[in-house]
Amino acid sequence: MLKTAVCVLLDITYPIIQGGMAHVGTAELVSAVSNAGGLGIIGTGHYPPDWVQHQITQTRKMTSRPFGVNLALTSPFTRELVDIIIREKAAAVTTGAGNPGAYIPRFKQAGIKFMPVVASVAAARRMEQAGADAIVAEGMESGGRIGETTTMALVPQVADAVKVPVIAAGGIADGRGMAAALALGAQGIQMGTRFVCSSECIAHPGYKQKIVAADDTATMVTHRTTGYPLRTLRNTLSQQFEELEKAGVPKEDLELFDRDRMYLGLIEGDLEGGALLSGQIAGLIKDIKPVKSIIEEIIAEAEAVIARLQGTGK
Ligand SMILES: Cc1cc2nc3c(=O)[nH]c(=O)nc-3n(C[C@H](O)[C@H](O)[C@H](O)COP(=O)(O)O)c2cc1C
Question: N or C, fewer C-beta in 10 Å, the chain?
């Protein structure tokens, strides 16, 4: 039941993808996810080429299974990172906002699966036409940079609009969420926040604990006035930023949550002064455990939910 086109496309056991995550999606997490039968993705953020090369080398030391790389098209190093990804023959590339157009033929020629992350049907159609092998449809429940449509509304609309497999992202952290995504027409899921709270993730323990302690209303969205909405846990930094936005401070004068703020929160564990990226599903996450347990429990629960819905389960 849970073998889907995404498993075949990526040569993975389970259709579970660990979304690329700047700062915390490093070789430790990526190799753990790939070893457990999913697809780990290295988050490159704005890190320089030698850092990315190091992460790929480290990942290869820890797994022989396929893994991917997430490319931030806003990075000043995109061109060099594309060369590295192609030379290293990563299994897949995911991209976010921006135009990956020029790079797509090179990925395809190298046999690298191109899986753009989109937040709208129009973008999904555009990316399929440009050659996407799968579409990651990411709802606004997600942690990090977001669009405006929910996963529940976005996934079935994207699934109807494209022929390539759709991977649902945003607001999924257990088997019920996975079964729901499959019911909406997705052939796989991508999770971020759940994987932050894994034993292998290098995120600061204080940040992981703050996700575990979070409830359903613990996140907020800032940066709408800048055109790059960002979902984080509510803290002093995000509240101060919200006040400045409400006061109508022009976007040129707003100090954005740059990579230093994110590093401060995610890695150094500054829980009030750092940006603590997290999805709304934080409220469902109650523990920090090994990636293998996370994946196996989700698969078992999704299969049980589907069996129950079919009337064949207990
Ligand atoms: C800490 C964190 C960092 C993230 N960084 C990136 C990133 O660099 N690039 C990207 O495309 N998505 C990024 N995301 C989004 C994830 O890849 C994923 O799509 C999202 O977390 C899914 O929603 P969920 O958090 O509800 O599971 C990030 C998410 C989190 C929580």
Answer: C
